[in-house]
Design a protein that fits this description.
Blueprint: H1 19-34, H2 37-50, E1 56-59, E2 62-65, H3 66-83, E3 93-94, H4 96-115, H5 118-142, H6 146-173, H7 177-182, H8 187-190, E4 194-196, E5 199-201, H9 209-229, H10 234-250, H11 254-268, H12 276-293, H13 312-325, H14 327-330, H15 351-359, H16 361-384, H17 388-407, H18 417-446, H19 453-457, E6 462-463
Antiparallel strand pairs: 1-2, 3-6, 4-5
Length: about 475
């Protein structure tokens, strides 16, 4: 049965905020509003990632988890920058941005059309738009250049160290100090560690053990990229690598471990980086051939992926299978009846299926477009990278992106993990823009009167910021 708190109007009925959390949010908010850009970036990332989403400020019927409060401070900073005439978005407007806008707006519009209630319009969908646009565009605003990208990854390394310490303690004692001492709407559930088999499932400061482990999985390639990019950050990178591995292990989740393995596998494909096109075609042909010879559909292979001894892989298979079988029910604006398609299918623990079932085909295509554009930026940037260190760093960004793509088959990001996802989408175009500028400078130095056509042909496309931004 679907939990009541997942339905409209099922949130908390009163403010639940620990005073310590409130003080930390106010300090972070002041840094975000008035500090330098890099201090603001570190404060936003640390506050957004380390404060559980069940710390909620209730204003009337509007719910403000602390992430939304931090977004409010970030919005004030962006307004100040706009009035000061500063550039709002690092690396300008890029192709991921309109896909993000289409995704968010059509999820909201289709949700309103589907449910047609005041709660759906005012409380839920406007809140989703505020959270998605706020977190994404604040990170796009704060991550302007290569130095900001490096700071983002270093900040994630320190966050990972804290999370790994919490989850290690949780594995050792069965108690989660974050939820136990800070309280929160879900403190009764996560104050004690969840269990699977003979092991605990550590949650850390996240909304679920799977999401905690996924953060470790998608962060690991970033720290590997940092390790080779700059020698002075190697200690931080090693700390992040170890912490990410501990996080993925302590979550005791197949999704996080498979996502972690996907990131590692992508990094190991580095020697084959110039053969990715034929490799992708080979994988596609292999899947087509499997579909022809298998008795079950090819996506049934997901049931073979189970590294923790649970039966959750079959649930993931049924999510995909029933979504495909009921395409006519959801393709236009989504459906309210997906929970009736099978046992426990209200649990949309698949990002792709979650978007499709709830919102329809167009938002799903927009989400896939975001991923495709990000991979295009990675591929083009790697090919024109000025040296092997920079090329490896871009490859590591792509490995993190691939780890996310794989993790999306096992979970939908509904907590602060979405901040890590948006940060990656913000970093990739900035790195691409930086490499393009360096390539242009080299071309102009070699031929001051013209830019080499080969350099321009391989550059990722960007657009200037519209005047209304």
């Amino acid at each position: 049965m679907e939990p009541k708190h997942l339905r409209f109007g099922g949130g908390v009925g009163q403010t639940i905020v620990n005073p310590i959390v409130l003080v930390v949010v106010l300090i972070a908010g002041l840094l975000i509003c008035f500090g330098g850009r890099r201090k603001a970036l570190a404060a936003f990332l640390a506050g957004a990632m380390l404060i559980p989403v069940d710390q909620i400020l209730l204003i009337g019927s509007l719910h403000f988890p602390m992430l939304r409060v931090l977004i409010l401070f970030g919005g004030i900073r962006m307004l100040r920058a706009k009035f000061a005439g500063a550039r709002l978005l690092g690396a300008g407007w890029n192709r991921i941005d309109p896909a993000m806008i289409v995704l968010t707006m059509f999820i909201a519009v289709n949700g309103v059309l589907l449910y047609g209630t005041e709660q759906a319009v005012v409380v839920y969908q406007l809140g989703n738009i505020y959270s998605a646009f706020g977190a994404y565009f604040i990170l796009r605003h704060l991550i302007h250049d290569d130095a900001d990208v490096m700071l983002t990854i270093r900040t994630f390394a320190y966050i990972a160290l804290i999370v790994a310490a919490i989850m290690t303690y949780e594995q050792a004692t069965g108690k989660n100090p974050y939820y136990a001492y800070l309280g929160g709407a879900h403190a009764s559930m996560y104050g004690s560690a969840l269990e699977r088999g003979a092991r605990f499932r550590a949650t850390g400061c996240f909304g679920h053990p799977i999401l905690a482990g996924t953060f470790g999985a998608i962060s690991f390639p970033l720290f590997a990229g940092l390790w080779r990019r700059d020698r002075k950050y190697r200690l931080v990178a090693v700390m992040g690598i170890g912490s990410a591995a501990i996080i993925a292990w302590a979550a005791n989740s197949s999704t996080s471990l498979v996502g972690f393995a996907a990131g590692v596998a992508a990094l190991c494909l580095w020697p084959l980086r110039t053969y990715m096109r034929p490799l992708r075609w080979a994988m596609l042909l292999a899947l087509v051939n499997l579909q022809l010879v298998m008795k079950a559909p090819v996506w049934h292979l997901i049931t073979r992926i189970d590294v923790t001894g649970s039966s959750s892989s079959y649930h993931r298979y049924q999510l995909i299978n029933q979504c495909i079988l009921h395409f006519s029910d959801w393709w236009l604006i989504g459906t309210k009846n997906y929970a009736d398609w099978g046992w426990d299918l209200w649990d949309l623990s698949n990002q792709y299926v979650g978007i499709a079932d709830v919102s329809g085909l167009l938002p799903l295509l927009a989400f896939v477009a975001m991923i495709v554009f990000a991979f295009k930026y990675v591929g083009k940037s790697r090919r024109i990278a000025p040296d092997k260190k920079q090329e490896w760093f871009v490859w590591a960004l792509g490995a993190s992106l691939f780890a996310n793509v794989v993790a999306f088959f096992g979970i939908g990001y509904f907590d602060q993990t979405i901040v890590a996802w948006y940060a990656l989408l913000a970093m990739i175009p900035v790195v691409a823009h930086s490499i393009r500028k360096a390539r242009r400078a080299e071309a102009q130095k070699a031929a001051p009167d013209e830019i080499a056509p080969a350099a321009l042909e391989t550059e990722p496309e960007t657009m200037q910021i519209p005047n209304f931004v």
